[in-house]
Amino acid sequence: MPTPPSNTAVTLHPAPLETLVVPAALDGRSGANRATGGVAQIAAANDLDAIRAWLARFADKPATFDSYRKEAERLLLWSLVALGKPLSSLTHEDCLHYQHFLAAPQPAAVWVTGGDAHAGAGRGRKHPRGDARWRPFYGPLSPASIRQATVILNVLFSWLVQAGYLAGNPLALSRQRTRRVAPRITRYLEPGLWQEVKDSIAAMPQDSPRVRAHYHRVRWLFTLLYLGGLRIAEVGGNTMGQFFVRRDVNGTMRWWLTVHGKGDKERLVPATRELMTELSRYRQSLGMTALPSPHEDTPLVLPIGKTAGSTAEHPAGATAGDTSRPLTRAALHTIVKSVFAQAAQRLRDRGGEDAARAGLLEQASAHWLRHSAGSHMADRQVDLRHVRDNFGHASLTTTSIYLHVDDDRRHRDTDEKHRIDW
Q1: What is the pLDDT of residue 322?
Q2: 233/363 same-domain check
Q3: Residue 380 predicted with pLDDT over 80
Q4: Phi, psi of 108 (to 5 degrees)
Q5: Domain assignment of residue 416, yes or no
Q6: Distance CA 49, CA 52 (A)
Q7: pLDDT band at 125 (very low <50, low <70, confident <90, very high)
Q8: 4 upstream amide cis, omega within 30 of 0
Q9: Which residue of 72, 206, 247, 258 has the fewest C-beta atoms within 10 A of its own C-beta?
């Protein structure tokens, strides 16, 4: 059982790290797990400063920083608000209790966005971190998300021990399970459903300059995610100047895209003729040259009304001279989800079986397009080594999750040749 809350006269409420004020009695200066010997490698005197020191290491990686901050913030707030003890006093038993809490954050009104109205059911609407309605959670975490949170917190605790701030890692005693790769990916669009999405995009209105610009952007974004197999963060983090052309051994000129991706790894993605045609179409819709110049800093996808040299539209925080600011991951996700919702509604309007298929589209996200691309390539018997390299996978084991056709063939052969014949 977790240690009961300490007797403190201060009532704390969950707040973002940047505005959180921790009472001296709970700030961790005298935490039970603080290191007492040796020389500390960080100047942090309390838990909040120690977490900030850890997060500072990821300041140049926005996606990683956001993910790590979220998990550290949630644990710190739970320790302070639910247990009434410093993070540097957490025990192994506390950490186990926290994992159960992640599966059902209660009371919902305290922890979950929209929890007052929905009693924690479902997922609440996101609010800015400075909004009074902000909460650390949007709903219960899935088993996979709980495992991911535990991995991140283990990294935090291990680093704080290494830095001489904590005496030990309370998560280190947890039973380590070997991670198993799922036998087949399931979050993908079979070819018929993918065609419905393309048809829905083709039917988008183009009767005004703004909606026409939105159509061209959507078509190009889905082309990048599918033909290029890019992750959503890679769309926002790379530029058109990373396209380049070179001659192959037969003298044919071929285009490539250098992608700086997950884990700071770089890979070369084949820019097929179809992909380059769509790039030219998108650029010309913006009044740009058909092909990018070397080292051009134009984002792969631009806000509406913005070209490489314009200042017509600036995201929040941009300045008049900031003409190459990309769309955020959240904005790109919103575009993709709205297209899936639009395609789902078209299916629902038809009724019957199509209405049932709409439910799958409503669950889809941008990453489904990457999975769909890998699955469709494997189904068409593209060499798995090529799929691996296009997607930046470390091994063929990861890539083999896309082999749906092999499953179908195995089922067909078993059905036809393995019979009891009563």
Answers
A1: 37
A2: yes
A3: no
A4: -60, -35
A5: no
A6: 5
A7: low
A8: no
A9: 247
